[in-house]
Description:
The chain is of the alpha+beta class. The chain is built from six helices and seven strands; from the N terminus they run ααββαββααβββα. It has one domain (14-172).
Amino acid sequence: xxxxxxxxxxxxxxxERARGKGAAEFYAVEEYLSLRxxxxxxxxxxxxxxxxxxxxVISELGSNEIRVRGLPNRAYIDTxxxxxxxxxxxxxTPMVRxxxxxxxxxxxxxxxxxxxxxxSSLGAITASxxxxxxxxxxxxxxxxxxxxxxxxxxxxxxxxxxxxxxxWLAAHKQV
Length: 175
């Protein structure tokens, strides 16, 4: 995948900020889509974070494909790193923005999961998991915790094979 990184500083309106960090992030995504009118693959990485293994995580995606990490039932999606084709972003972003309300306990992680579930069931988008877990470095804006510490990386390496098996089983089970 080409190494182009495009950034955009967006002034987020007060009403969006009042609904929470997720509302502000997805407002910025929608602004990016509106101003740049992209046609390729776009990855969103939360502002103060970095990817230690970007070369393994970032790849070209189909226009209607979204790549995430989250619970197999899509009740929670890790929104720190999300990749999608332009059309997939255009499908999920308005739904996320319309749904997020931190004060009501509806976070971007829940709203994105719901948008992906709806888009997948309608055949509008396809969802896939990252083949390699994003190794995130930086500080959480929510808790202040540091990502990328040796203990966290070791735990992830030990748990990853089991996680892959559980995700495969969940994808193949019937409700």
